[in-house]
Amino acid sequence: MLELFGSKTKRGDFAMRKNTAIVAGTLGVTLSSLAVGGMVFWFLNSADSISRQKADAGIADGPPGPKLKDGPLGMKFVSLPKGTFYMGWNGEKGSAKKTEIKKDFEIAVYTVTQGQWQEIMGKNPSMFSRDGDGKGKVKDIKDEDLKQFPVEGVPWNDAQEFIKKLNEKEKGKGWTYRLPTEAEWEYACRGGATSEEECSYHFYFEKPTNDLSSKDANFSGWYPDGKADKGPYLGCTTKVGSYAPNKLGLYDMHGNVSQWCSDLYKPGSPDRVLRGGCWTSSGVDCRSASRSANFPIYWTLCNGIRLAAVPEVGAKQEKGKE
Q1: Interstrand relation of 258-264 and 303-304 (parallel, antiparallel or unpaired)
Q2: How far apart (Å, rounded) are the C-alpha atoms in residues 298 and 258?
Q3: Which residues share a beta bridge with 36?
Q4: Total count of domains within the chain
Q5: By residue range, what is the domain housing residue 191?
């Protein structure tokens, strides 16, 4: 996966955590370049080419959205019960660890959108926005549709600020919002699967599979996973919910934007966990058990957030035990 990141205070400066090149291969597509902070990034041409690729691939152009519990800012949430599942399956027998989810929780159907972030924070950090460095990629996208693109370029610390302001706005309405734990995220990604057999797949849509094509998720289709064929590479994010959900009705658990979790990546490290892969990822990085991390003040072109929700009283009790 290509990870481009910089600090919150120096957004023009990019560093490379992984020096992974994106190559055009033999697809015969037209590329355009974008210069940022002295570095050049190559993408497929414009938003109309994105629409053509999605149409050719049979990809829907908008999220119909399931009828689920309403949350703030037009968000939708689905409930997951407490329980035990097998976490971390990497393709090898016995690699999954039996893991307990100790309390019921809710998780957002979609990642936080640019419109929702703008409403709370008063600004939009996203590269693929009207004023972002990648604005040329989305110049043909209607304003209302662009508001439904995922917010990206979000440091973990800024995600916490967004959540703090959202909770202040929603205080007294019965729910508290936070990032999911890494275990909650994977449990939700796997569609609430609990048996070791059900948890022994890499990707979860209506049915679990070990194959991922970019017809199924927004990632670099030049690098599919499993037995899937190569597919289109959009070269940017796209509207949330543009691909099929898992059986819980959760969209974009594989690709589009990586999603911050609350956990530390490992004991003693300041890095926070990211899950889900993103629009630049290879298929293997979009697996349900794949992990990445970043320092909490750093932003990347991939980082977004998906919210979890717990009852307001329960959240106070959890905080008191920390």
Answers
A1: parallel
A2: 14
A3: 39
A4: 1
A5: 4-321
